[in-house]
Amino acid sequence: MQTQELFQFSAWAIIIMMLVFYGGTYLLSLLIKKDKESTSGFMVAGHGVGFGMGAASMTATWIWAASFYAAATSGYKYGLSGPIHYGFWGALMILFIYPFGMRFRQLAPNGHTLGELINARHGSSSQLILAVSNLMGSLISLMVNFTAAGALVSVLSPLSFQTGVIIAAVGVLSYTLTSGFRASVFTDFAQLVALMAIGVVIIPAVLFAMGGPQAMVDGLPNLTAQQQNFFSSEAFLQQGAPYFVAVLAYAIGNQTITQRLFAIDKTKIKATFITATVGYAGIVIGLGMIGLMALTVGIQPLDGDMNNIIPQMVSTYLHPVFIALFFILVIGSLSSTADSDLSALSTIMMADVYGKNIAKDNPNPKKMLIVGRATMIIATALGLIFASLKLDILVMLVFVGALWGAVVFPVIASVFWDRVTNLAFTAAVIVALLFFCIARFELLPIEGGIALMFEIFASVGAAVVIGLMVFGFFGRKLGFIAALITLVLMLIYATGFLRDYEVLLSSLTAYGVSTIVCVALSLMSNERFDFELIKERVGSYDKPQGKAQNSAQAQPKA
């Protein structure tokens, strides 16, 4: 196996590159700055983002720092099918949200967050579950991206980890603070152009510098049988299936995605999401191929850290000019996601916390903007602190992923089925989260009857995942048929087997339990909800006080 030291730039070279990148991005944001920013403009760019900007923003946001390292790691660990399992499923989830996003926009054409819609449907308790999960998720994502910046700077220069974190944090905050989501979308476009241009250059450059496709072919005998198998069961069960389930939850539960649903021109949503699906798949699968290249030529990760695979390959085979382009590539990807996290956090605090729960649907637009910008500053400070401490974020990521998985069915059922109640929504999420923790952290021994029970719940969860996807694209009847077939197959083949894959078991359990509880409690109630009320309860915050909502007095009880 090969190993080597990484190429390093001088401290001044790194500082100049970061200042040029963030300085240029800040100047771009000034081009769209408005003297009097509206709350709608700050949160969702006035609901009028076009096709090009929307597709670029969705793609750039979905590609974050972890996409680089995780895609390459997947290629390195699982061989031929690894990059596909990371890039394809992630891309599919962008497409998956489209049909449900159309329903969100139909019910709340003037909305800003999914929490607002759920508040109008159920009340504040269900809304706050979404708000808390999104606040945690976006803050953790922000921390991950700042951490990635610090790690990259410390690896490729003499500068410290903390210096890289600070420069990235201040740089992202500087341009996002000016115009909020509008700045995020506008700069995403420029960042994606850079991502694609540099990616198109770097990936082939690495391939041909190491000897071209023939070098990979010659190295295939070094791979295990599973790594050589394009349809590897190991890759699917360890990487593909858990990631498929996780990003499904991310697509529904994360405000950075739903914020773009509410921001894009309604007539452009379909084209935007299809384009973003293709763009994400192409870039991320390409990055994963670098990990496969490393595997075939026998590169050993420096210090045993899989995150060093891409820097090692670039450093080993390319000229310093290409290494500089790679540095900008990663900084651009993490910045595009970090600014989306800041915009998401500010929107949640503005709409879900201040607008709905503090101002009670009668907010002061000026105070609302202050809340949004203050949230960005506080979130950046927290992200700096957590990133600088180099905390182990795995447990938090697992917890937030489970929370999002637990809300998927209750959220979707709430916007299509008029019998879902606030109690059903809230109880479903809480009980599902409890069962997830038991399975994921083995709070009870997962064996015997207990293991069988969780496998049954997980089988229901798999049926829900497949059923919802088919339902979204092909309608209710085919969705039920697909769910039933999946359930039967899972009960036959997964029982006695799935218990050995705790990540997949626990994730599917969250889906299954939340669905069972939500359906059972909803059927016990005779309540019916008029979906037309949502349009009345979710409106613009820029109207004069006292007219911010047409029916604040008709809000459902928490």
Task: Quickly give the structural class.
Answer: mainly alpha
Number of helices: 23
CATH overall fold name of the largest domain:
Sodium/glucose cotransporter
| Integer average pLDDT | 86
CATH class identity of the largest domain: Mainly Alpha
Shape: globular
Find the CATH superfamily of the largest domain.
Sodium/glucose cotransporter
Q: Give me the count of strands.
A: 0
The separation of the N and C termini measures 60 Å
Report the sheet with the most strands, covering strand number, pairing sense and barrel closure: none
Can you put this structure into words, describing what you see?
The chain is mostly helical and 558 residues long. It folds into two domains: 47-391, Sodium/glucose cotransporter (Up-down Bundle), CATH 1.20.1730; 393-539, no CATH class. It contains 23 helices and no strands. The protein has helices at residues 11-30, 39-44, 51-62, 65-78, 82-107, 114-121, 124-156, 161-179, 181-209, 213-219, 225-228, 233-253, 255-263, 269-297, 309-317, 320-358, 365-388, 394-416, 422-440, 448-474, 476-493, 502-523, 532-537. Helix 8 packs across helix 16 (320-358), helix 8 runs antiparallel to helix 17 (365-388) and helix 12 (233-253) packs across helix 22 (502-523). The chain starts with 10 loop residues before the first helix and ends in a 21-residue tail after the last helix. Mean pLDDT is 86; it is low at 544-554.
